[in-house]
């Protein structure tokens, strides 16, 4: 089958199309899905570059959506022909992917494959951040970095729905308008304004209850200094690079709480976590309460171009491959 296969880690140029990757078969507890779309996520760039260790060679990609073509032993609730979205199995940059049935969800009627794929890594992450990493309460001031990005857009909407007062950071006036449309109460152009100063002005000098930071090295200290007393810094990504080791005493002023959550770790708690998160996210998309924006699509052979677009930070929404 056709798939992107990585034989050495590095920049986007290592994403090479192969036409003779063996087709997966359904094993105990798994399904085989024919991908309609494969999701592109920042974690794919970490696997590709070597920031996260992965055994070589491998087919990248951790989420997607498509049609079930084979059902393994011990699997109930799924049949050949079902429309599904999945997370976490690896190998989605391919025509066919073997997926764990426990982290696969039925796509509700009226929800497209594209929207369902956007609801996996990015949607599940946003829902977990707003409920499990820090349980947003009505009236909480919430700082969302990269509020016009794929995860940021969904997190902004979910935080708003939970009663949070969202302050989004963005790089351009166009992205600022998008963040406001999605529910941000205030938007900071970090390329033109001092983020900490503006946060304090917006919140009457107090700071935010929680800062969600998927950018990493370039923003984590800004996030820390934007917090209210006993605020929570939820650092969930490394888009600008890995954060250097932290002196724990920097958390003492204000009694700051620091967390580095992972969706994978939340899902290890049991299948009930995936079921609850996916039900809430896909249900919200189906009801029209969670708007998904597809920022770009590329054929499988152009996966390298898709990665370059993602890391340029010029996109606003979910990026997809079409195998």
Give a verbal description of the structure.
By secondary structure, the chain is of the alpha/beta class. Helices cover 29% and strands 25% of the residues. It has ten helices and 15 strands. The chain has helices spanning 42-49, 113-118, 121-133, 150-161, 173-181, 195-202, 220-225, 263-267, 271-287, 303-311; strands at residues 3-5, 16-18, 30-40, 63-71, 83-87, 96-100, 104-106, 141-144, 165-170, 186-189, 208-213, 227-235, 257-259, 294-299, 318-322. Strands 3, 4, 5, 6, 7, 14 and 15 form a seven-stranded mixed β-sheet that branches. A six-stranded parallel β-sheet has the order 10-9-8-11-12-13, sandwiched between helices. Strands 1-2 form a two-stranded antiparallel ribbon. Strand 14, helix 10 and strand 15 (318-322) form a beta-alpha-beta unit. The longest helix has 17 residues, at 271-287. The termini are close together.
Key structural traits:
seven-stranded mixed β-sheet; six-stranded parallel β-sheet; alpha/beta; 323 residues; globular
Spans with pLDDT under 50 lasting ≥5 residues? none
Classification by helices and strands? alpha/beta
Note the beta-strand portion: 25-35%
Number of strands: 15
Order of helices and strands: EEEHEEEEHHEHEHEHEHEEHHEHE
| Portion of residues within helices | 25-40%
Task: Quote the average pLDDT.
Answer: 95
Assign an overall shape.
globular
Radius of gyration: 19 Å
How can the largest sheet be summarized?
Answer: 7 strands, mixed
**Given the structure, what is the number of helices?**
10
